[in-house]
Amino acid sequence: MPSQLLSIEVTRLDAGRARLGLTGDLDFDTAPELIAVAADARADGHHDLLIDLAGVGLCDSSGLSAFVVLAGAGTVRLAGVGPQLQQLLDRTGLTELLSVERPAVGDEAREAG
């Protein structure tokens, strides 16, 4: 099954911070796009990146590798992490390397319900 195209919406939050909102699949074919967009944001002076993964349906090892590459160049925080991706991050030890924003208790109840 072919991967879903990845779209990345960049929102500059303030000096030094940007939000990258991802929609689609983060895999072998699309991970280089995330790295390139993040490099452009950092070249513009945004070294603290919030990567919103709420719209990501699939993240494979190439996506995890992209997170490691990005973390090596500056601050990376992940938001909107689903249960399957959270499990991958925990199993690979990347939760220790990356800052993962946990949903508020009310958000978890809405997702479960």
Describe the model.
The chain has 113 residues and is α/β, with parallel strands linked by helices. Helices cover 41% and strands 33% of the residues. The chain has five helices and five strands, in the order ββαβαβααβα. Strands 1-2-3-4-5 form a five-stranded mixed beta sheet. β2 (17-26), α1 and β3 form a beta-alpha-beta unit. The relative contact order is 0.15. The model is unreliable at 108-113 (pLDDT under 50).
Task: Provide a quick synopsis of the model.
With 113 residues, this protein is an alpha/beta fold.
Helix content: 40-55%
Label the structural class: alpha/beta
Q: Please work out how many helical segments DSSP would assign.
A: 5
Q: Can you summarize the main beta sheet?
A: 5 strands, mixed
The multimeric state of the shown protein is: single chain
Count the strands? 5
Shape: globular
